[in-house]
């Protein structure tokens, strides 16, 4: 089992819709979770981080964490074509400062 | 958050040669890491660059192939040694402050092609 798993996509949503991206992880001791956006040919940029169960909102983005079920998700409201990118889920391996990345989900927002 | 300058941005190298990639951070950071991202793949951690001591390598990566230096809290290098076409990849350095827990900053990446 991979430490961090994501559906590779592509996930296609129409402009203005909600995009829902999911991630599961295997390390029950993990406490910190991150979502990165990576445009083609660019390095990843941090969108959000979440530590506590529940929802965390930042503008059009909402991160959701459920530690009991070991999943974390990212919702993007009012999706825009500029949101088209690969979204990487990262989990801080317990007891370390090492981030383990999922394979990423490619999102396409259709104008 | 820190800003990382990484160079070179890209290079084409002959097999059997070595390439050294440099990362300079604009502020002192406690933690620096090196990742590899092969085409269409996610990021794989190569090693943790430890200031003043030997790097800590992940399974599948060895010092002879990927020697790393970190002489101070703002600078690190990764050398890809005795390159083969399988080393063609994007190499990324990243940095974070220990204890802040607010995520990595990444360098702009080095796109390496080995011919």
Write up what this structure looks like.
The complex is a heterodimer of chains A (111) and B (115). Chain A is an all-beta fold. Chain A has strands spanning 4-6, 11-14, 19-25, 33-38, 45-50, 54-58, 61-66, 71-76, 85-92, 99-101, 105-110. Chain A has no helices and 11 strands. In chain A, strands 2, 4, 5, 9, 10 and 11 form a 6-stranded mixed β-sheet that branches. A 5-stranded antiparallel β-sheet of chain A has the order 1-3-8-7-6, with no helix packed on it. With 115 residues, chain B is mostly beta strands. In chain B, 0% of the residues lie in helices and 50% in strands. Chain B has no helices and 11 strands. Chain B has strands at 4-7, 10-13, 19-25, 31-37, 43-49, 56-57, 68-72, 75-80, 89-96, 105-106, 110-114. In chain B, strands 2, 4, 5, 6, 9, 10 and 11 form a 7-stranded mixed β-sheet that branches. Chain B has a 4-stranded antiparallel β-sheet with strand order 1-3-8-7, with no helix packed on it. The radius of gyration of chain B is 13 Å and the shape is globular. The N and C termini of chain B lie far apart (37 Å). The model of chain B has no long low-confidence stretch (mean pLDDT 92). The A-B interface holds A 32, 34, 36, 42-46, 49, 51, 88, 90, 92, 97-104 and B 1, 31, 33, 35, 41-45, 48, 92, 94, 96, 98, 101-109.
Q: The biggest beta sheet of chain B, please?
A: 7 strands, mixed
User: For the report, how would you describe the main beta sheet of chain A?
Assistant: 6 strands, mixed
Number of strands of chain B: 11
Instruction: Specify the oligomeric state.
Output: heterodimer
Mean pLDDT of chain B: 92
The overall strand count of chain A is: 11
Binned strand content of chain B? over 45%
**Share in helix of chain A:** under 10%
The secondary-structure class of chain B comes to: mainly beta
Number of helices of chain B: 0
Task: Give a summary of the structure in a few sentences.
The complex is a heterodimer of chains A (111) and B (115). By secondary structure, chain A is an all-beta fold.
